[in-house]
Amino acid sequence: MSFAALSQETRLHIVRILVVAGPGGMAAGAVAEKAKVSPSNVSFHLKELERAGLINQRRDARSMIYTANYDGLGALIRFLMEDCCAGHPEICAPAAGVAACGMPAAEGKRVV
């Protein structure tokens, strides 16, 4: 279900927006604005991402706040890396390092 949710370009973009937003998350309207989609369109995509376990939602007064589900995203990354490199984990080490939150990628750039 996670792969199906992320296979759609707008949903992948929304997940990236929420990862960058951090644990504080963003209101649905702000996500729509940042993703450059209509509020009704973003609601559809947010629902699909939540159903796939990739994002969380919480109510804050009258707003719905959405955050990346770091546990769910981490599980997806672990699944992808589980059988990596035919018994040569040193090959996967750079990718595993980048997957760690806040770790810089090559040349000092952060991967988002």
UniProtKB/TrEMBL annotation:
Keyword set, alphabetical order: DNA-binding, Transcription, Transcription regulation
MF term (GO), any: DNA binding
Keyword Nucleotidyltransferase included in the entry's annotation: no
Domain of life: Bacteria
Pfam family, one: HTH_20
Cross-referenced InterPro entries: ArsR-like_HTH, HTH_ArsR_DNA-bd_dom, Metal_resp_trans_reg, WH-like_DNA-bd_sf, WH_DNA-bd_sf
Domain HTH arsR-type per the UniProt entry, residue ranges: 1-88
Presence of keyword Transcription regulation: yes
NCBIfam families with a match to the protein in the record: HTH_metalloreg
Protein name from the UniProt record: DNA-binding transcriptional ArsR family regulator
Species of origin: Rhizobium leguminosarum
